[in-house]
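Reopening: Stage II sporulation protein P still failing for me.
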Amino acid sequence: MRRRWYYIKRAIRADRPFFVAAAVLFLMAALAVGSRDWLGAAVSRYGDQYGLSMARTVMKEWIPAAGRQKGRSGPAALEPVLFSYLGSMETETAPAADPAYEKMTARREGADPGKGAQQETGETGRREEAGRPKDADQAGAEGAGQTHEAPGQVQGNGEASPEEGEAAGSSQALAGTAGGRFPGLGIHMEKLADYDYMMQNFYSIHPTTTAGRELMDAEHFLSMDLSLDLGNGQDGSTAQMAPKEPQILIYHTHSQETFSDYPENPEATITGVGAYLSELLEGKGYSVIHDDGVYDYRDGKLDRSRAYTYALEGIQGILQKYPSIEVVLDLHRDGVAEGTRLVTEINGKPTAKIMFFNGTSQTPDGPIEYLPNPNREANLAFSFQMQLKAAGMYPGFTRKIYLKGLRYNQHVRARSALIEVGAQTNTYEEARNAMEPLAHILDQVLRGS
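Support: Ran it again with your exact input. Result attached.
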């Protein structure tokens, strides 16, 4: 016993600066919990980064040889399990260079392992593609991500998942319409007013966030008027001249995302898909700016850890130059397991499925104070109205709306949306075909039709 205390005291004396630093850290944490001011945000931001290192050092001092010999028992035998748990935490929650995106990231099961080289790293829930880290998110979309495939959404043959099929069946079995503006859907407002029904059939929620009854109000979402004033004497038809002032901005936080037929087809990129969506919307009378700026490739290498920071700088410059812009769309390509095919058929064409993605700017513990989004409810209403339009006009085209804990630059406009178009297993043709029903859905919502 004396010998054991001798080694313990010796370890403490040898690492006295470390234990002093640990005491200071815990004191700061206690002050933060008590005051809940800016110090709390700072501790929260950096605590994860250094907490694991501190835990590992303490364990190595107190259990110096644990788990290294076969047949050991007692506390020493727990080391492999403890270190395995710590290792998984480090992979899932360690913050990257951009805390506004990566801080709340978490690995999701069934994520994209890539063609021998893709795996999730960390808000959306984002992944690495061919050794290139993708910051959802999550997601995360952050993120994320940028990799937001929700549980129950993976299909291998292009058919709807059981949840999607059940939702479509329930919807079609009901009479009436939602708010009178979603013909063909057949959902009573009383049904949508049921929180459990709404969340089960229309949403997937990542563990980094929560969506309570006070926030997820279908009647409120549908009551919001998200239509645009097209101006220039336009009467709502689709054959007018485009307005002079830009109204819609399309951009790509992760511009380097490609589809399965790249590089054989050099156009098979998410920016190519965005260019086609821009063309379709201009044909419907909107004035569109397509920003093909690169935000995830810097200094000769892919840098998705700060892509959302770079993208925010870019789009804020555009919005300052063109304050008339009211709609901001961040177009992405998701990442899924290689055996997954997110494809359906619309108008006789193979079409990639899409997914609307919302950042909630809150964790299960409450709002993320340094990521405020005054447009959060309008963002949620925007995606929900488009989701209902899609369910009525193109059943099976959309996956469930994915909710994750960060902001994803959706605070810049009330009509902001992050849209995942297919995945790396889709062809460029399938992704491009998806822009036709998406343009139709957007047009319907933006005209209040």
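The mean pLDDT is 73. If you still see a failure, please send the error message rather than a screenshot.
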